[in-house]
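Encode chain A's predicted structure.
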Amino acid sequence: MYAVRVIPIVRGPLKGELTFFSRDSVPEGAIVSVPLRKKMVPGLVVSARDVREEKQVLKAADFALRKIGRAAPRRILSPAFMRAVSRTARYFVAPEGAVLSALTFQHVLTSIRIPECSPPSPKAMEGAARPEVLLLQADTDERLSEYRNLAREAFARQNSIMIIASSLIEVEALAAALGRGIEDQVVTLSGDMGDTKVRAAWTKAVSPGLPAQAGVPLLIIGTPPALSAPVPNLETIIVERESARSYKGRVHPYLDHRLVAEWVAAESGARFILADFPVRVETRARIDAIRAEWLTRPAARPRGRAIVTLFDTRVTEEKKKERRAFQPISVESVTAIEEELARGGRVAVFAARRGIAPLTVCNDCGTPVQDRAGTPMTLHKTPEGPAFISHKTGALMPANIRCTTCTSWNLVSLGIGVDRVHEELKKRLPKASPILFSADTARTHAEAKRLQRALYDKPGTIIVGTERMLPYLTEGVELAVVASIDSMLSLSAWRAHEHALQTLMYLRTRATERLIIESRKPESEVLRVAVSGDIQEFYEREAAERKEYEYPPFATFIGLTWVGTEVQNKLVRDSIIPALKNYDVVGPLPPEVVERNRMRERAVIRIPVGQWPNDDLLAILDTLPPSVSITVDPDDIV
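Encoded structure for chain A:
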């Protein structure tokens, strides 16, 4: 009989190991099935010792050991990946079980048909490039050309290459562009593919020595969980479009999958490449810090032939002041769209926010329409008519309400939502039948693909969408119109301007003929750079500001968030403030109401560059109450 220590692979704040018993010894690093909260979950074996050696400990325990599941233990994760998981858990102050859950495919962990991980061969990676960090700043077509060259070179050495993308549609687009002529050597891996396809792709990726494909090097293209696949002879890991915000986890354990990919590459002895146009400020700063090199000469400007036009919508408003008719998209843009559609071209119109209007206020007293948590509600069009919806809490409220402060009916909607732009184009271009593409109309990949086909199957089509639409513009459009970007420039997030520029640059590369940007802030440096294409100017200014105020990459932020009643939050504050007295802490910031009698409070720890992870601070953070959520390098710090 053996006492087996296991880390359950589950999301959530469960820390440490649990002990189970097994009749047989279980190898360290094996995946087993264990009972947890009335269900069976996968777990990672940490150790297995004879119960006679654990006799005193087991006698002193106030609980009875439970037996591990019947499924045979299997080694399906490589030692290199497990080392990267340990680094990830330490950096993001998260339990290893939660990290494993976020970085693996549940279909793989629970399947008994998945082949075991083979131990590294002494001859593995012969002739492979030495581990290094490289940056690739180039347009999409140039990046694809470079990937083909890298794949050919790796295949010649009988080594494999892995490309990580942020979404399934990008995985599919990369596979279609890079797989011509080598279809049998391309493997796609994404959790959205379905159980059967994931298991088949995993088996092919980790078992290239099978008779059907003996010794065949592979090009693996997948979303971040593909990093967990123990691919033999892996030479290079590439993170494509590394600026995509979806690489940063929005739920616990709040991982940055770009860092995870880098650590997997380092532990595997593989070369690591970050690619985009332009790369992020944090990424570009690695060159200055001599922590990375350029793979090729970086592109200084986008090389597309699209003409960029910036419309100052304030001029249009001045001309039409006597009519006081608000137009979510200018006459000039509508005319350009009409002309492009007449030529049979395709048009994409971007709006930054969902709904009809992102904000509605009382015209008499200025009180915004908000939910119980104090979050401004967005006006949406629903089958039952207009309604206010909170994107944070899901609260729904009819549109025919009074002001909660002065009971006035005089409510006015402010800002431009994608639904309003869509309705305006339907009215102005009735024969065009614009397609609406947002998180409300494309909730799944299948629904998004249907809208994508509607755009590309028929010439002379117009699509109106939010960020949800952007990755699906795989074939580009002749004309792209930005109807709303000002709300992105007004966000409090410290990366807001960089994200706005990345969005505009992406649309610029997707437009083959012309890009029109509408704004009431034409003097904004972000818009000026988007028109000129001089990204070096933006980087130098942004990097200088971040260095002056000690923002990443010149420091590390650790965000602390807790939610509770006023009394509960005071107890948390009283434990946090003295514990962190020797650190640079901003906050606790003024509380925000999230629901009746419950408030959210936040604080931010600033760590000098190069001093995180820190053993002393990790020990302090480990003692904080479970109600405190910890996020490393959060986007929002105020």
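Residues 94 and 253 are 6 Å apart (CA to CA).
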